[in-house]
Amino acid sequence: MAGLILIIVSFIFFIIEALTPTFGIFITSGIITLLLGSFMLFKPSSPLKVSTSLILSATAITFLFIWFVIWFAWRTRRRKVTTGKEGLIGEEGKTVSDLSPEGTVFIHGEYWKARSKSGEIPKGKRVKVVEIKNLILIVEEVKEN
To answer: Other C-beta atoms within 10 Å of 100: how many?
Structure first.
């Protein structure tokens, strides 16, 4: 019974590691409890004999899988936001009408009401979104090199 409880506790450690930024403390604890639980559950002297190499390889495969899932989740969290209001800031588009100081721009495949941050911007110029206020994009002209 203790072996089964340790295996369950190891998976709880894996879940905690995936949900909190602990830098490997819980994954290490999970691997240790998984190994101990496996050895307790399948004793070499019991009628249910399981080889030590099978327990070690299953633990190693579990560790690699959990590590990959945690690495992928961490990498996904660090990505730049690409949707919503935050995803528009820094994007470039074109003016559809003159911005003096308000007009229309085409950014991200959509037409937006926009206001020039400084001065007038003629139709057809490239602009960059610097902020958003009440669903109106505040833009500045992108200087051509």
So the answer is: 12
